[in-house]
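lol ok so funny story. i was supposed to be doing the assay writeup but got distracted and ended up predicting the structure for this chain instead. priorities right. anyway since i did it might as well share w the group, maybe its usefull for someone
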Amino acid sequence: MSEKEIRIFLEKLGLKLENWPKFSSFLSIYPFDRIIKDYFYIFLDKNTDRFYDNTTDNDIINLIIFDKEISTNILKWLLIFEVKFKKVVIQKLVETIDLPTDKLYLFKESDFLNIFPNIEDNNLDVNRFRYSLFEHVSNSDFLQEYNSLEDIPITDLSYSWTLATTINFFRVLSNEVKTEILLEFRVPNELKDCFHKSLNVLLKIRNTVSHNHIIYNFKTNLYRLEFNKLHKFLLKEDNQLNQPINLNQITVFVDYLLNFKNCKLEFEEKFKSLKILPKAKENLIKLFYGLNY
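and the output, tada:
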């Protein structure tokens, strides 16, 4: 559709165009069908399939900006958690078992498998897993001071890992080491499987943000039973175990793991300043808390 055709289409649906130059600039960034799919529906009256009365293009612009801002906020706190998680995993490994060396690259095959007793139980390819531990060394400025892989201590090496690699690392550690890690995050040992599954939910939302998908209406069924069970136990919230995981639960859970309240607080502050039609804002509240509207 041309810009003229888009404008006619929107006006027929009842959208008031008050800031067409700015809205048009968004059309040069995002495909129009993505804007329709991702941002229109909370402004549409389900009874008429038209925009609520007095909806303007500024409402849609503000929602797009809000979505990108909270994506940035939640990614910030997820990255902080990611660094903390790496540090705790390595710290507890080193404290709990007697490593033959602190240079993972120098481990013999038998030594390597000894510190990861659950590799076979988790159907991980040993060679592929080992490769992932060193995959991003060459891209890490922090590790350039080392002349070779043989020189890098495991504590420094871990900072080059992706979150997915760190989760796999946790996954194949001994139960003894896992117990110590769980204690650090105030998670009971009997919920270690739920904790592992919940890490994968955080990975999903991290990747969702990183790949520029929308986030304001986030929900997922990935490991919902395990995530909700852990969330319910830790946060003492009476949520249904089978419900999709929503953005509110993610922000609260990240705050719990970091022992902060910043992630949820920043979302709420952004939400308060969001200037959109009251009916649409009401729909947004329901989406955030995982309710139907």
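The longest strand covers residues 44-45. The longest helix spans residues 57-96.
back to the writeup now i swear
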